[in-house]
Amino acid sequence: MSHNLFCDTIPEKTGNAFIRLSHLESLRSDHNGYFARKGPTERRVVEPANIGGKPAGFQGPGSYRGANLLLDEVQQQAGQETRSLFGGSGLSVVKELLPPGAPRAEWWKQEMHWDGKAFMPWDFADFMADPAGPFARAEDGKPIGLDPAAFR
């Protein structure tokens, strides 16, 4: 997985890692952008069920819950995501995400563009990163997220 733009979903889901997998050692991931409600010292990015061939979690209600790793832990333990970053996405559809626990009405208005009667119309370009923003290009020069050139 590379050059993906991972965006948080609803404010209540920040406890879930962006990526869930069976074995941490199988992760091949880099040059990604994380647009999250919490920063890299709080937001979990990878949830492996096993690390080093050993179970790394517990059986929760309904499913197994693996270890929840921060970006720096993934970098240290797996040697992956070394050139991935957290920050503002530069998407015109939503400039910033509200923090966890934000009132539902505020979330619907700011992030979903709901005025109480209808959603604001969006265009495909609204989901492309700003070419001058931090997620426009990864360290290797390739776009993070949707590549505008692929849609011309």
Written description of the protein model:
The chain is mainly beta and 152 residues long. It has a domain at 5-86. Helix content is 10%, strand content 16%. The chain has two helices and eight strands. It has helices at residues 71-78, 104-110; strands at residues 5-7, 19-23, 33-35, 46-51, 54-55, 58-59, 64-65, 85-86. The strands form three sheets. Strands 1-3-8 form a three-stranded parallel β-sheet, with no helix packed on it. A hairpin with a 4-residue loop joins strand 6 and strand 7 (64-65). The longest helix has 8 residues, at 71-78. The model has no long low-confidence stretch (mean pLDDT 92).
- The mean pLDDT is 92
Give the spatial strand order of the biggest sheet: 1-3-8
Order of helices and strands: EEEEEEEHEH
Largest sheet: 3 strands, parallel
Oligomer kind: single chain
Indicate the percent of residues in helices.
Answer: under 10%
Instruction: Please report the number of helical segments.
Output: 2
Distance between the termini: 24 Å
- Give the number of DSSP strands: 8
Compute the CA-based radius of gyration: 17 Å
Which structural class do the helices and strands define?
mainly beta
Poorly predicted regions: none
Beta strand %? 15-25%
The gross shape turns out to be globular
Please write out the topology.
Blueprint: E1 5-7, E2 19-23, E3 33-35, E4 46-51, E5 54-55, E6 58-59, E7 64-65, H1 71-78, E8 85-86, H2 104-110
Parallel strand pairs: 1-3, 2-4, 3-8
Antiparallel strand pairs: 4-5, 6-7
Quick overview of this protein structure:
The chain has 152 residues and is mostly beta strands.
